[in-house]
């Protein structure tokens, strides 16, 4: 399996190279040269497999020759067996005759990012073992990526991680899950800006030769292909338990950066019978506008009770635009350059028509989000966090055949957003015992101005340069 850049002007890499590189040298994102495909019979054979076995089956075509099957199996066992509080890793919970929750929050930091990042940390460590390199991971987080990435690499040899988060714009639980990890290779940076600014700073560091040339950089954000690869697995795992391949399944995905829902798109390209992908946004609705009217224009970020969705620049949308426009890297590079200059583009007819075949979307306002939390608690006895509530509200707003199961991705444990959940339901969710002492732990982080010069100077003081 080889990986190409969405902008068509970066070296073609194998899986190991793409994983360690993170962002492509031309500013694009790596994607597989072609999508693997499973037959209906091969998908049906997954019905009785464990999560680890499913992960190996789904990911093996993407890994290619970079890992043998035994090594991939060992890494999946390390990532999932014992690190997740539920033996199913990503269990399904039925809400009513049609709607289901796919609980993705049973990992060590209580969010769906654990499913990918527990594996990514092991991949980094494995690939570095035969390289004389020290890896400097730089990432941005709107809340959950940071804690999951830090947990995955804290204390690992040959790796430092620098994680930027928008100061005051993540929940207290999200912040403390990052800032109470005191391993010497973990560096938390609070910037005085929003997530889009943090994400832009990370991309700028990768694209600046003067900075990136000094360090061996890699990414843990969903710009790293390996993260999305690991997220494809739970679409297969859920769908086969609800009747796939004989029965199509729809998925509602609360999303800001488009990575989680793009993993569902890849699952469909691989042959999984996905009836519809419902893109659920909050009032920061750039993706909803893009999919409904072709208007991909960034406005100002509005802070909400669902901070992981408070995004106006969805990095992974570039991967979809590339695939829907005939994989024309030069055309996509021009389109994205226009967006980066003007913060606005119109989708081409091919992109709009291609997206409409699989995607629909919904914009959920704060009142409907709160109503979904309250309704789910009263009718199903399930507490859900604000992001999951947005997914549920979107799922119920779409007209689908009642015979098609609708799975909403439950992306975070409700206790990560205790105040918002309590306001809507009257019930305050309890932190699981494994992190019950979170508010007693010491915090450590640095506050840095959200400028390229200030952030790079801060990182350069602490990072290990190339030999």
TrEMBL record:
Keywords assigned by UniProt, alphabetized: Amino-acid biosynthesis, Lyase, Pyridoxal phosphate, Threonine biosynthesis
This enzyme's EC code(s): 4.2.3.1
Query: One Pfam family this chain carries?
Result: THR4_C
Please give the residue positions where the record annotates the modification N6-(pyridoxal phosphate)lysine. 113
A GO term, aspect molecular function: threonine synthase activity
Can you give the residue ranges of the Tryptophan synthase beta chain-like PALP domain? 88-342
Gene3D superfamilies linked: 3.40.50.1100, Threonine synthase, N-terminal domain
| GO biological process terms, semicolon-separated | threonine biosynthetic process
Q: Where is the Threonine synthase N-terminal domain?
A: 2-80
Q: Name the needed cofactors.
A: pyridoxal 5'-phosphate
What's the domain of life for this entry? Bacteria
Principal EC category? lyase
What reaction is this protein's catalytic activity?
A: O-phospho-L-homoserine + H2O = L-threonine + phosphate
Does the record's keyword annotation contain Lyase? yes
Q: Give, as in the UniProt entry, the pathway in which the protein acts.
A: Amino-acid biosynthesis; L-threonine biosynthesis; L-threonine from L-aspartate: step 5/5
Concerning NCBIfam families, the annotation shows: thrC
Q: Which family does it belong to?
A: Belongs to the threonine synthase family.
Name of the protein this chain belongs to = Threonine synthase
Protein species of origin: Stakelama sediminis
